[in-house]
Amino acid sequence: MINEDPGEEFLISELAALAKAIFSNLELIVLLEVKTERQRTDEHLKALWSNRETRENIKSTHVTGRFLHFRRLHPTLTDEALENRIAWVLRSAGHEPSERDRRVFDDPAHCLLKLLTRLAEVFLCEARDGSIRVRSRLQTQWHDLVLVVPPLLVTAAWMAARRSIPDETTISRAARIEFQRRVQLWLCDSTLPVDDDPLLDQLCATEGLDETHMHLNGTTEAEKVWMDVLARPREVLNALRHRATREGGLHTRIGDGIDRLLRQEDPNLTPTRLHQRIEQAITTKAFLLEALDSHYALTNPSGAFLLLDPQARYGQVVRARPLETDLTVTTTEALHLVDIISYLASGNGTEVHGLAFFYYALIRAQFCRLLVQQADQIGFDQFQYITLNELREATEKDYAERFRQIERGFQKPVNFLEGRFAPKENPERNASLLMQILRGYIQFLDERADGIPRGNLNKLFSDPKMARISLAEALRISRELEEGSHRLPRSERRLRLGLVAHFIKRTDTDERNRFLRDEFSPVCRDSKARRMADRAAQALVVLLQSVHGLSSMLRGVDAASNERHAGPEVFAPVFRRMRRAQIQRFTYHVGEDFVHLASGLRAINEAVLFLDLTSGCRLGHATAAGLSPEKWWRSVGDAVIQPSEDRLDDLVFVWGTLKRKHVFQDRIALLDAEIRRLAMYIWEDPYLTPDILLRAWQLRYIDPIIRSYGNYDVNSDRNAEIKIYKESQARDPKAHAQFLLRHGAGLTVEARIRCRQPILVKREGDILDQELLEFLQTATLELIQKRNIAIETLPSSNVRISIHQSYDDHHAAGWLGYGKALCPTSVVIGTDDPGIFATSLRAEYAHMLHALEANGAGANAAYTLQTLAATSRRFRF
């Protein structure tokens, strides 16, 4: 362990950077991978290493690639400065500098074991409850590390160092079982250990945490998907290989986003090449496991066993391992890694085994990076490419494993989970999806803390998977297990589940282009997204009305995904429909990704006003209301480009806010003139005033598709929308006419084109200056607080998608009264997509605790954290 001194933090950061550089060595992967289909990976590695010239080339590629990737992490340093840092890290291990350490790190056949052991001893420790923990003071550096380096490799090295006998085959079965149980206790059903802060231990144990913002798809940890791809590569990779092409870009063609995601990771990576590498990793791991025990070592190299395909060979080797049958998948994988690391550490393995382990780890790391948003992948689009690659799809059909991951065995940090799911467009598909979720939930509830089934369901049903029961019966069983009944004892699990339906924000590029050309123009803007959301809402309402007990499980409604693809106005009719179906709680993702900060603030206000969010409702993210305008301008290079109509909307929104608040009278006059100029350019109507434009903006909660209907409809929901439409038309005909004009009623092709004409807005000279933006933030927060709405803040998601450089400058500290204090705001914490952000709810609380301390909370940080937990309980649906 590196001793604590003034340079400790710097040294640890450089150690983590060096580890990331080593694990990102794409050149070494290319050099080691098999080029022909007929050659086995292990034989290929043996051939490479046995040849002196290729062996030296491998070592050179390792060292050169390490340096180049280290340079990318430190782009401003000279070569000499980089050399000094690398040498310092390599030769510093808490003892006198060692030339031998440098030679070990320069050798790819030996460096990985040394590196993983070093990382393990620096970052990890054992808590009083017997679990592996991350040292609390290093939580931020650890989280940065595991975006690139698979964490189970590090924890396996930590566990291997604490195994008394390195060769498992020489110990008794009882001792082996005891160690296997110990590993399961260390891991707590997760590949990501949590911090060791005693405050959070107490908070989790006594009060528990409430998860208010988690998407069920996107929850599974990356390494759990890796374990699945080892067992069934074709099924897991099938979605990536056969996905439909999804072109990215709202304003210009930028190509398929998933293809770009692969090429960002590796310029030569394709779905086919990834599949080939996965199969080579499977063969390599089988080769390493075969070497561990003479009982199943290859005694006949020419036998039929060697001719098996990688998946079959791997399956036979794994089945021969001396492991207990009731261990979790995570524990089993960890034991494999512990065995391999122990074997290499004992000196029994050859250099080829060391090289094979390194190659296996490099492929494992590359695959996991495709499932986790990296530090340099900024913005929602980058996040969305990870969700769209669907590499999690096959794995995430097992919902029980997700609940186990959140429960974390005996740790049980979470009281309540609001799991979000995307409703389908017909009741049958919704019922099927909900049954899939409930089967996993019921299976989870009928398990002990160690994951072993209690067997209560077997007593009730001949089919323990409950394939033949109805959705209503599944709901009843889940309630019985939650509360206990005469036929089912109360579950030992702490976690309880509620569901939130989140409608998807979509855009259709072809529809947008047709609207601009007025060629077979849609009835209104975003008509396809509106109709799809409405069909999904209708299907959900039908199911709610027909399935007894579903309303108690379905706690609320949300709209999620890329907010630039559809604004709050698109979902206003859907939210009204769900209210009429007796859904009372709503939340909405907004103000997270925007072109201009004023646009983000406008979107937040639109969500509150158009969706009629009231007491007990929430907003997801709302980062525009917390970011420093100064810092935001710097992040966008002091200039933005936005469509003319968006700029006009921003100006009208600001003008209306200032008029309502009776402030900045001098700015109101300037805004008035700029609005009239821009409105005249777009609409060519000299009588169009800021007041009319403001009133037309306020009418956007109306469904514009209604203009294609008659005056009455037998469908009660549709008839209610017709009434809203007709009343607004009678009440304010000028504003209503402008509202319809925006949706294409009488709009010329020239005006449509002018609406999308780009405008360059520079910080210098922008009428929406820093003082005005800060006022708008305060006014927005006052509106949120006045309506008793909470903001769901998601630290890791915000750091990846927003402009933050670290957790310490997270904007929520200002909402909570620290740093640059903003208007007091009700804040709850969630994880968003914990698998994609390599986090957990407890980790998000740890990040927030550090942010509070960094912003001067001091002794009040503990109280503020407890307040956050209490607010989450109060605002949970």
TrEMBL record:
<dbReference type="GO" id="GO:0009117">
    <property type="term" value="P:nucleotide metabolic process"/>
</dbReference>
<dbReference type="InterPro" id="IPR032466">
    <property type="entry name" value="Metal_Hydrolase"/>
</dbReference>
<comment type="similarity">
    <text>Belongs to the metallo-dependent hydrolases superfamily. Adenosine and AMP deaminases family.</text>
</comment>
<dbReference type="GO" id="GO:0046103">
    <property type="term" value="P:inosine biosynthetic process"/>
</dbReference>
<dbReference type="InterPro" id="IPR006330">
    <property type="entry name" value="Ado/ade_deaminase"/>
</dbReference>
<dbReference type="GO" id="GO:0006154">
    <property type="term" value="P:adenosine catabolic process"/>
</dbReference>
<dbReference type="GO" id="GO:0004000">
    <property type="term" value="F:adenosine deaminase activity"/>
</dbReference>
<keyword id="KW-0546">Nucleotide metabolism</keyword>
<protein>
    <recommendedName>
        <fullName>Adenosine deaminase</fullName>
    </recommendedName>
</protein>
<keyword id="KW-0862">Zinc</keyword>
